[in-house]
């Protein structure tokens, strides 16, 4: 791929354009897109037109640019999480039906929990998790459940580079949380993101006993029923694991 004057390749520039769309917004003016991507307006316009020809972006009459339906189609058709989501949703619906609260499914990507599915209802407590959104491992129960079930080498690498931008949590605290999670078989975090909520999560393992995801719920502190929640989540996680093997 040809490089620009700044040294970045065409692929680099395309990725920067696609990443420029903020969460919750699928449309930007061309000038906003160029500024957010850090690219010259002329280069952005040329790349946007080329991407639009393939349906990956759409150009509106008013100069607005939006993500194309073709991009959504390709991502969802070939997503590695598709089978996981299909296996998990029926079990997530069962849990939500009983609890009437938020149910999340996440995978580990780097040092973050990447949410691949989320179910909630009107009246549920606040839930900052969003599909295709991320949270640092140490502030999400699903993140802790995922990391606590990784090989020791990966946990050590994570703890070695760990830093909390808020300055509230140290690597030693996270190490204790991971050890506690591994011993108990589930993760729990109270008020880490919202002060009035409690997150509970368990690992989802495939038939080879490898942790491939984490299943969690977010409930009000006042309605916390650990003895009832954990067995329900663990049963659902085992069911998801069996479905993945089918």
Characterize this entry briefly.
44% of the residues lie in helices and 21% in strands.
CATH architecture of the largest domain: 2-Layer Sandwich
From the alpha carbons, calculate the radius of gyration and give it in angstroms. Answer: 21 Å
Number of helices: 9
Number of domains: 2
Number of extended strands: 9
Largest sheet, spatial ordering of strands: 6-5-4-9-8-7
Span from first to last CA?
41 Å
Overall average residue pLDDT: 87
**Range of helix content:** 40-55%
**SS strand fraction:** 15-25%
Summarize the helix and strand pattern as letters.
HEHHEEHHEEEHHHEEEH
CATH class of the largest domain: Alpha Beta
Q: Please outline the major beta sheet.
A: 6 strands, antiparallel
Descriptive report:
This protein is an alpha+beta fold and 246 residues long. The chain folds into 2 domains: 10-75, Arc Repressor Mutant, subunit A (Orthogonal Bundle); 80-244, 2-Layer Sandwich (Beta-Lactamase). Helix content is 44%, strand content 21%. It contains 9 helices and 9 strands. The strands form 2 sheets. A 6-stranded antiparallel sheet has the order 6-5-4-9-8-7, sandwiched between helices. It has a 3-stranded antiparallel sheet with strand order 1-3-2. A hairpin with a 2-residue loop joins strand 4 and strand 5 (112-119). Helix 1 (10-19) crosses helix 2 (30-37) and helix 2 (30-37) packs across helix 3. The radius of gyration is 21 Å and the shape is globular. The mean pLDDT is 87.
């Amino acid at each position: 791929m040809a490089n620009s004057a700044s040294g970045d390749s065409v692929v680099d520039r395309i990725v920067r354009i696609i990443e420029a769309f903020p969460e919750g917004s699928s449309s930007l003016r061309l000038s906003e897109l160029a500024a957010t991507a850090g690219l010259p307006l002329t280069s952005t316009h040329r790349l946007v037109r080329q991407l639009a020809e393939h349906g990956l972006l759409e150009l509106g009459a008013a100069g607005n640019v939006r993500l194309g339906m073709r991009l959504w189609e390709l991502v969802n058709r070939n997503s590695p999480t598709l089978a996981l989501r299909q296996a998990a949703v029926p079990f997530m619906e069962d849990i939500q039906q009983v609890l009437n609260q938020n149910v999340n499914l996440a995978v580990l990507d780097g040092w973050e929990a990447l949410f691949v599915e989320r179910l909630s209802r009107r009246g549920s407590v606040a839930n900052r998790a969003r599909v295709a959104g991320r949270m640092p491992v140490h502030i999400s129960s699903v993140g802790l459940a995922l990391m606590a079930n990784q090989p020791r080498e990966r946990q050590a690498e994570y703890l070695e580079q760990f830093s909390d931008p808020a300055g509230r949590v140290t690597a030693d605290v996270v190490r204790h949380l991971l050890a506690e999670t591994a011993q108990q078989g589930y993760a729990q975090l109270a008020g880490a993101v919202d002060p009035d909520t409690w997150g509970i999560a368990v690992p989802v393992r495939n038939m080879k006993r490898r942790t491939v995801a984490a299943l969690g719920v977010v409930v009000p502190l006042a309605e916390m029923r650990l003895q009832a929640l954990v067995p329900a989540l663990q049963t659902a996680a085992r069911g998801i694991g069996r479905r993945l093997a089918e």
